[in-house]
Amino acid sequence: MEIKIGKSRLLLKQGDITQEEVDAIVNAANSSLLGGGGVDGAIHRAGGSEILEQCKKLGGCAPGDAKITTGGKLKAKHVIHTVGPIWRGGGEDEPRILASAYRRSLEVASENHCSSVSFPSISTGAYGYPVTEAAQIALRTIIAFLRKHQELKEARMVLFSPEDFSTYARELRPMTVPDM
Ligand code: ADP
Which end of the chain is more exposed for a tag (fewer CB within 10 A), N or C? Predict the structure, then answer.
């Protein structure tokens, strides 16, 4: 599924983010940036030790912030490491931190002249964020950014499971308004 935002595109697909051929893929990391499970483990396995060597020099990353490294052996040139919120029921600023993780990742992508970026579903694995609510925040934040930053040509959400793909597609549909 794909929508146009001015001259830019937002694409939803099901797949493995480590296989993406884009300027940057985003990693849902933890604050240490020293590796973890889920998508983080998959990215480090596929990208090789060069990514971890660069991560060690970054001094960690606060929730809602993002930092960039090489893509190592990946097809993607860069990995942008961001840290989403751990879901604690919704009253601990989780929505703001999740939106910030997407926005900061996009800012770092733009600053580094990336014109295509792929995201996983940040915080909805081990961090327990409900997928429907996370999808709304992810999609709204990406759309708002693309409206203002047409230098970013394509943003993709790469959903690992068919269920997550369906949820994101269902949430994107009502956000799609015909051109006026
Ligand atoms: P978090 O700790 O931010 O919740 P996780 O890695 O546990 O991060 O999960 C985030 C999402 O990434 C989950 O939806 C999970 O299914 C997904 N995921 C895991 N491996 C991959 C992969 N190779 N490509 C894309 N998404 C993945």
Answer: C
> Does 179 have pLDDT greater than 60?
no
| % of the chain at pLDDT higher than 70 | 98
CA distance 51 to 166: 31
Nearest 5 degrees, angle CA 56-CA 32-CA 93? 145
CA-nearest residue for atom 16, ligand 1, is 160
Residue 117 DSSP symbol: E
Q: Whats the size of the chain, residue-wise? A: 180
Alpha carbons 52 and 29: distance in angstroms, whole number: 12
The CATH code for residues 2-175 is: 3.40.220.10
- From ligand 1's centre to the CA of 43, what distance in Å? 10
70-83 pLDDT, tens digit per residue, is 999 999 999 999 99
What local confidence, expressed as pLDDT, does residue 176 receive?
A: 77
- Residue of the nearest CA to atom 15 in ligand 1? 125
Residues with a known catalytic role: 40
